[in-house]
Amino acid sequence: MANLVIDNVKKRYGDTEILKGINISIAAGEFLILVGPSGCGKSTLMNSIAGLEEVSEGSILIADQDVTHSSPKDRDIAMVFQSYALYPNMTVAQNISFGLEMRKVPKEERDVEVERVAELLQINHLLNRKPAQLSGGQRQRVAMGRALARRPQLYLFDEPLSNLDAKLRVEMRTEIKKLHKKLGTTIVYVTHDQVEAMTLADRIAVMRDGEVQQLGTPQEIYDNPANLFVAGFMGSPAMNFIPATVVTGDDGAMLELATPNKTLLPFPKHESLQPYLGKSLLLGLRPEMITEPQAHKEGQKYVTTTAIEVEVTEPMGADTMVITRINNAEVNCRSNPAYPADAGSVINMMFDTSKAVVFNPTTGERVDV
Amino acid sequence: MSNQTIKQPSKVLNNVLRIALYTVLLTMAAIYLMPFVVMLLTSLKDVEEIRSGTLLSLPSTLGFESWQKAWSSACTGSSCEGISPYFLNSFQIVLPAVAISTLLGALNGYVISLWKFKGSDLFFAALLIGCFIPFQVILLPMARTLGWLGIANTTTGLVFVHVVYGVAFTTLFFRNFYQSIPEELVKAARLDGAGFFTIFYRIILPVSIPIIVVTVIWQFTQIWNDFLFGVAFSGFDTQPVTVALNNLVNTSFGGKEYNVDMAAAIIAALPTLAVYVLAGKYFVRGLTAGAVKG
């Protein structure tokens, strides 16, 4: 177990800068997730941590030791690859013990370690099989087993679940989380799946175009996104962005919505909106903050009930997504399936702006900070 | 409903087509086998019978004298020891040349595909040009080089020539095969602590069997059948069997002994034939195989 410090790491290929100065540091035992769209540099950053790619600038420290220019084998890390990368000519047991063999661990100790790992991942019965004889989920386990066997200081997971089918992915996700709780290891995990990021991480680094947009706990990232990109990337369905004009109302600066009856929404940090009076800003409101009128929330400070026109509904079982159009933006609302909401009808909905965020539409940065 | 509208070809038509197919296949096989059959028949006849002009008839008596003569006592130029010494010469050239060029090709392909470096694609392109250089072009420069290296007219010299000429092809084969191996395999092994040669030996070579077979067959056939390099760069004692065969056919005291010529030609062709029969099925499989599952 070890902490990891990534200090101003840059990576260039010719003139193109893939990593533009990454700063991340995590404590020992933390589960860090790198998340972002394809091409954001998260895999490059992972390879740089592993030592598979040389960085152009900056330094990487594992357990307070500078490993920026060490070779991969001297960094004491293990990696689980998206394609699993199991050695096709070796049995599962040989795959797991190969790293130990390369580190000149005696045969008896290797056998004990293979047993331990196989026990942990419940793959004892597969030890004598070749990778080609395994299913996707089993290969995934073996790939993790290979990483666990060496007991390295740091684990790297490169989209390990993206080749599994949906059901298995959820199962393995839980399994990885349990494993982390049990072993308390430091893990860096790359994914482009924001649900995986939310469920697994102690901390998330949202990346775009070679830069870290925000580094924080899953809840911080969800509740308090640093900019429009982070807000739109995390959460499913995504956060609603409603262009709204700042006007002066009963509660100071308020945001105006062109619902059937014109609505003014109060805002907790209304002072921060003062400089924008008369201008249009982007109101970010998660779908679960626009619900059917709920008695227990009635009369709360930042709760406003107003009528909207239903465009279409999407029943999801637990909730029904009510889709409407406000100020020319499509808005998702999460309502109780029992609440009547027919397409084309006008119904009352409750807007809770206590956790709303506001962005500058041109820069995409938060306004209310 | 719909399967009623699909017309089933009648049984008769089916059989006719099948017979036609087999007729074509058998005809083609016969055309290709005919020269070999004639060679075999001729080698088993005696000279008198050949002169009577019955090319395709079966020999009146089975005699293996011509085979014996071709192997151990026919004259190739001024010596009369048959082609057996040259047969061994050929093996002495072919075995090391095939082994070395295959190994080098495997290493080159491994580097070009899985350890890409700056300019590795250019390097590969340059190497590919080697596949397009005609043999004749390099005869003189190679003769100078061999002389300068002090290995002219030796078996070592011929091995060297064949390795140099073969590496372009073997590299191409291995490079294409290794393109299908995921780079992550090498990355995983590096993180596991394996070095360049350990990865090659422990992980890459074991999955390379199909392409090794292909390369060995290709190189074996090429080098065994080579005449030009053999005649140009060999000394009197190091001539390969193809050159000896040519000498044998062109050396005659009195009448031409076609039966001995034919026997010698078949003997010279036997090793390549054997390689194809033993490993032929891997050849097609290896050329078409690619993806390494794992």
TrEMBL record, chain A:
InterPro entries hit by this protein: AAA+_ATPase, ABC_transporter-like_ATP-bd, ABC_transporter-like_CS, ABC_transpr_MalK-like, ABC_transpr_MalK/UgpC-like, Mo/tungstate-bd_C_term_dom, NA-bd_OB-fold, OB_MalK-like
Coiled coil: none
Keywords tagged on the record: ATP-binding, Nucleotide-binding, Transport
GO MF annotation: an example: ATP binding
One protein family per Pfam: OB_MalK
ABC transporter domain sequence ranges: 4-234
Name of the protein this chain belongs to: ABC transporter ATP-binding protein
From TrEMBL, chain B:
Keyword Transcription annotated: no
Domain of life where this protein originates: Bacteria
Pfam families linked: BPD_transp_1
Recorded topology in the membrane: Multi-pass membrane protein
Keyword Transmembrane applies: yes
Ranges annotated as spanning the membrane: 20-41, 93-115, 122-143, 155-178, 199-220, 262-284
Domain ABC transmembrane type-1: 87-279
Subcellular location, principal: membrane
First and last residue of the signal peptide: none
UniProt xrefs under InterPro entries: MetI-like (IPR000515), MetI-like_sf (IPR035906)
Entry keyword set: Membrane, Transmembrane, Transmembrane helix, Transport
Localization in the cell: Cell membrane
SUPFAM superfamilies: MetI-like
Family note: Belongs to the binding-protein-dependent transport system permease family.
The protein's name in its UniProt record: Carbohydrate ABC transporter permease
Originating organism: Marinomonas sargassi
Lineage of source species: Bacteria, Pseudomonadati, Pseudomonadota, Gammaproteobacteria, Oceanospirillales
